């Protein structure tokens, strides 16, 4: 029960979703989403630029949904080869699909996302 943000990064587009789950007599699931382009200069720039762009998109989406500044549970689908050490730790092994952002391979992408969120706050 509640509101959740889901992220899907797997190519030149990035999807942000708001999932609203309501329980009770009649369970309902409502989903809203927006797709954002990832420009080539971001795909091939620095990791910090990439994750800052992702966080900018999240912020834009929440503003669009009338939820600016909301703090919500977040799920992150990151469709690149990773070594998943735990539920909230994924080490990027190598970029694919045209991505070449620097300072990401060998790093924990969850930490990179969290750091970008902190920079935005």
TrEMBL record:
<dbReference type="GO" id="GO:0008865">
    <property type="term" value="F:fructokinase activity"/>
</dbReference>
<dbReference type="GO" id="GO:0001678">
    <property type="term" value="P:intracellular glucose homeostasis"/>
</dbReference>
<dbReference type="GO" id="GO:0005829">
    <property type="term" value="C:cytosol"/>
</dbReference>
<dbReference type="GO" id="GO:0006096">
    <property type="term" value="P:glycolytic process"/>
</dbReference>
<comment type="pathway">
    <text>Carbohydrate degradation; glycolysis; D-glyceraldehyde 3-phosphate and glycerone phosphate from D-glucose: step 1/4.</text>
</comment>
<protein>
    <recommendedName>
        <fullName>Phosphotransferase</fullName>
        <ecNumber>2.7.1.-</ecNumber>
    </recommendedName>
</protein>
<dbReference type="GO" id="GO:0005536">
    <property type="term" value="F:D-glucose binding"/>
</dbReference>
<dbReference type="InterPro" id="IPR022672">
    <property type="entry name" value="Hexokinase_N"/>
</dbReference>
<dbReference type="GO" id="GO:0006006">
    <property type="term" value="P:glucose metabolic process"/>
</dbReference>
<keyword id="KW-0324">Glycolysis</keyword>
<dbReference type="GO" id="GO:0005524">
    <property type="term" value="F:ATP binding"/>
</dbReference>
<keyword id="KW-0808">Transferase</keyword>
<dbReference type="GO" id="GO:0004340">
    <property type="term" value="F:glucokinase activity"/>
</dbReference>
<dbReference type="InterPro" id="IPR001312">
    <property type="entry name" value="Hexokinase"/>
</dbReference>
<feature type="domain" description="Hexokinase N-terminal">
    <location>
        <begin position="1"/>
        <end position="120"/>
    </location>
</feature>
<dbReference type="Pfam" id="PF00349">
    <property type="entry name" value="Hexokinase_1"/>
</dbReference>
<dbReference type="GO" id="GO:0005739">
    <property type="term" value="C:mitochondrion"/>
</dbReference>
<keyword id="KW-0547">Nucleotide-binding</keyword>
<keyword id="KW-0067">ATP-binding</keyword>
<dbReference type="InterPro" id="IPR019807">
    <property type="entry name" value="Hexokinase_BS"/>
</dbReference>
<comment type="similarity">
    <text>Belongs to the hexokinase family.</text>
</comment>
<comment type="pathway">
    <text>Carbohydrate metabolism; hexose metabolism.</text>
</comment>
<keyword id="KW-0418">Kinase</keyword>
<dbReference type="InterPro" id="IPR043129">
    <property type="entry name" value="ATPase_NBD"/>
</dbReference>
